[in-house]
Amino acid sequence: MSCQHTSPQPINLRQKFALLTERWSPRVVAEMNDYQFKVVRLQGDFVWHSHAETDEAFLVLEGQLHIDFRDRLVTLNAGELFVVPRGVEHKPYAEQEVLLMLIEPRGVANTGDAGGEYTAPNDVWI
């Protein structure tokens, strides 16, 4: 499946976020080749995890996101993008709600190798 629409249409991210009430549960809004663009609301702590097979891109649309690494901390503000390299253990967290876009290959679990209660269903469109 390359797209959920019969013909390409603009995607209004504000409308998509308005439909999204759960936190830590990414939803697909578009696909390009084998990559998905996912919107997600975050607040609080996530789990330590890594993605052995792929990099993971975080684009902060609203708020401030912190990503802990074992050796440092990266802080992203609205309008900033950061790519976590494949295989690097990390833990996102946000003191206040963050609206975020994730860009990653289709089929990537949000909890990577960690699994557990924060694992969201994959390939769910909004």
Molecular structure report:
Strands 1, 2, 3, 4, 5, 6 and 7 form a seven-stranded antiparallel beta sheet that branches. By secondary structure, the protein is mainly beta. The chain has one helix and seven strands. The protein has one helix at residues 13-19, and strands at 27-32, 35-45, 56-62, 64-69, 73-77, 81-84, 90-105. It has a domain at 28-105: Jelly Rolls (Sandwich).
How is this fold's topology laid out?
Blueprint: H1 13-19, E1 27-32, E2 35-45, E3 56-62, E4 64-69, E5 73-77, E6 81-84, E7 90-105
CATH class of the domain at 28-105: Mainly Beta
What fraction of residues sit in β-strands?
35-45%
In whole angstroms, the N-to-C terminal distance is 15 Å
CATH superfamily annotation of the domain at 28-105: Jelly Rolls
Structural class: mainly beta
* Average of pLDDT: 92
- SSE arrangement, N to C: HEEEEEEE
Low-pLDDT ranges: none
The DSSP helix count reads: 1
CATH topology (level 3) name of the domain at 28-105: Jelly Rolls
CATH architecture of the domain at 28-105: Sandwich
Main β-sheet description: 7 strands, antiparallel
Rg, Å, rounded: 14 Å
Helix content: under 10%
Global morphology: globular
Work out the number of β strands: 7
Concise synopsis of the structure shown:
About 5% of the residues lie in helices and about 45% in strands.
Task: List the defining traits of the structure above.
single chain, 7-stranded antiparallel beta sheet, mainly beta, Jelly Rolls, 126 residues, 44% strand, 7 strands
